[in-house]
Amino acid sequence: MSAQLPANLSVETVREISDARDEPEWLLEARLEALEALDELELPDVIQTPGRRWTNLEALDFESLVDPLNQSDETSREAPEDAVVLSFTEALDEYGDLIEEHFGSVVDLETNYLTALSAALFTTGTFVYVPESVDAEDVKIRAEMNSRSLFSHTLVVTEKSSSVTILEAIESGNDIDDARYFSNLVEVVAGENSYVQYGSLQNLDEETYTYSLKRGDTDTYSTINWIEGNLGSKLTRSDVETELNGEASETKIVGAFFGHDDQHLDVNARVWHNAENTTADLVTRGVLDDEARSVYEGVQDVGRDAWSTNSYQRENTLMLSDESEADASPKLIINNHDTEASHAATVGQVDKEDLFYMVSRSVPEQQARNMLVEGFFVPVLEEIEVDEFRDDLEELIAARLH
Amino acid sequence: MSSDQDHLKETDTEARFEFKKEQKAAFAAEKGLNEETIRVISEDKDEPEWMLERRLRALKQFQKMPMPTDWPGQPDLSEVDVDEIVPYIRPDVEVRGGVDDWRDLPDDIKDTFDKLGIPEAEKNALSGVGAQYESEVVYQNMQERWEEKGVVFMNMDQAVQEHEDIVKEYFMTKCVPPSDNKFAALHGAIWSGGSFVYVPEDTTVDMPVQAYFRMNSEGMGQFEHTLIVAEKGSEVHYIEGCSAPKYSAFNLHSGGVEVFVGEDAHVQYSTVQNWSKNTYNLNTKRAIVEKNGRMEWISGSMGSKATMLYPASILKGRGASDNHITIAFAGEGQNIDTGAKVYHNAPETKSTIESKSISKDGGRTNYRGLVHIANGAKNSSTSVECDALMFDNESTSDTMPYMEINESTVDVAHEATVGKIGDEDVFYLQSRGLDDDDAKQMIVSGFIEPITEELPIEYAVELNRLVELEMEGSLG
């Protein structure tokens, strides 16, 4: 079902946002098109099984959540010298052509109601550009959300044979006595033989509803690796997707989530094999405590022309409480027979024998359990190339355990 | 190859399954579905009033419910127009409810079942046989020694008359209500024929009972209902087989199966489905399993144009268990969408699902499964394993499992793999003197062995033979 266009949204609102940033005409047009499409668009698909929808996005009241003209964030960006890392707005001056070429090329802005809303209203975000043969390490983007709603759009473009590792972190700044909405669209255009690791850490306060869609497009021999850490928010809907469009390109989607209280996490990893000799590896690990609930969908879609595909997926959920719920649907869609594909999913508790072993070695039970939960995330932590990101994630996990 | 296999290879699929008979009917309903048709069917069967009322209620449900159209990757059902179906044909048999001697059947019907090999199987390996032709059971026999123990195996229409209390209690009330899905509603409105099996407490029926369903007429629908009630501590193995010749118009098969597995009881339900390739097979099968009861679903889906079938078990009592073993084989123009559903609603319940699929020549298979573990179903475990084998690049194979886990003290595992037939395996077998076809056949036979070894030997042979027929001469 489609949501209504909130009364506080209008062409004037969008013009005002665009004018305030002194944006080029093409971007204003793109925003207005997205705004116009809102009437027709549906909310993102959620998994449905007989009798229930796994995530209730219809319950979101955009009228009260969205305050387009009062968006505020505090964002710091750190970058090595030879790479370009600018706020989206600043980048328009110098890199307008490059941005125009790629903006909305990976994420169709009219994918659904929430992507269009984001495109029409975004005020923050980052442009990352890595020129040919440049290796850019440890790009760090740390953002604080200081308003009721915040819309962000990030574009990463890597040229031939370049590489970049990125950490993007979002948390809540100013305390606001109300429900909040954070929206984040990320597009990665990976040039031939380039390498991108895009790490994301979402730790917003638990009054916030979060929607994020991250999507990458690979060229020949290129690699896009995603690391997605979700700890905060009341409701998180996160889609991380790669289209393997270049021959012999690769992707890894590594996810970690830890839900407690009544958090709801709807986490999705999807990959499309559209070219020959492509490889995908999807790894997600999540822990649920209290009344938290996770919904996971993983899709490996092997197209008719994707000869010689390798595609793997694993999803493991650890449940620490009987009141929590873990829903999972790892899907394989195979249209080319020259494929080696597998997926596996498990749900269980902290292993009783492991626990017994540690307790018998005189580790107190609570501490032993915490160590096992921390250990559970190791396969995800090991993938992280930005040290600061790994430390942050480890710390947040430790802090959540009691 | 052994001489046995040589013999099987000679069997002509056309002669065995796809032969057609001239249509002769004692009574045929008009095409389409309305209240009048249902009243006529019910009257023709001399049904009690309550059954007519249930039918009419189901019809209302059916008219209300939308066609399933929005499942990801589901078969196209746009051709399924119920107004074009002849919902009920009573074959021209003297004795209503079936004869108990094959020789008493009209020659053309007897000939049909002879060709299918059913009377022979009855002699050799079965406790009882029911045979349905079009909408009604034409043959029904149960060995005396079981009847003496109180085991009932009769056709469903007869059961409505003779075991009215049991049927009234269980028929589409607790297990498969008409509201379950559009085709369950359709089934509830125009069901006809099928089997009723009742096994009293602590009785073990140690040879399988079998029902065979044959659709012969063009453009008809078959809607047989199977109701199995296995009381506490009893055991029974029910086998269902089916086939239909191929016509240009579509056929619809929309059966309903309800199984009640009592405390400590054990029911095995085996199907080898080989509907002709113009049949839409839209079935609803479900079991309710009480404390420590055990349900086993074993199915081979070979035929049909499109199948949507997800046998379900509701594990209601502590310690109840379920095993699903399924194999789907989709060739040219076929879309086999099948899987398993298990609801763990009590502590210490267990389920295992093993699913194998093969697709070739543009065939499409899909495993669609649902495992639900309710809050409080402590120490339950489930393991799901799906393997898909693909022959060529025109074929498609999907796996769409859903897992809803509301309880932490559980053990849930799902695994799926997809692969093509290994070139190395084929090369190895060829280097040992097998030709390409035989090598691939052998690999497929090995692939489905976990399924065939669960079936009684006659069925395993039949399944292997069907697989071989599907593979024959069509390999590149």
TrEMBL record, chain A:
Stretches that traverse the bilayer: none
Pfam families linked: SUFBD_core (PF01458), SufBD_N (PF19295)
Domain of life: Archaea
Residue ranges occupied by any SUF system FeS cluster assembly SufBD core domain in the UniProt entry: 146-376
Gene Ontology biological-process annotations: iron-sulfur cluster assembly
Segments forming domain SUF system FeS cluster assembly SufBD N-terminal: 70-137
PANTHER family assigned to the protein according to its UniProt record, in alphabetical order: FES CLUSTER ASSEMBLY PROTEIN SUF (PTHR30508), UPF0051 PROTEIN ABCI8, CHLOROPLASTIC-RELATED (PTHR30508:SF1)
Family under the similarity heading: Belongs to the iron-sulfur cluster assembly SufBD family.
Annotated protein name in UniProt: ABC transporter permease
Gene: sufB
TrEMBL record, chain B:
Highest taxon above the source species: Archaea
Any Pfam family hit: SufBD_N
A biological-process GO annotation: iron-sulfur cluster assembly
Segments forming domain SUF system FeS cluster assembly SufBD core: 213-447
Domain SUF system FeS cluster assembly SufBD N-terminal, first and last residues per copy: 139-210
InterPro entries on file: Fe-S_cluster_assembly_SufBD, SUF_FeS_clus_asmbl_SufB, SUF_FeS_clus_asmbl_SufBD_core, SUF_FeS_clus_asmbl_SufBD_sf, SufBD_N
Family as reported in the entry's similarity comment: Belongs to the iron-sulfur cluster assembly SufBD family.
Name of this chain's protein: ABC-type transport system involved in Fe-S cluster assembly, permease protein I
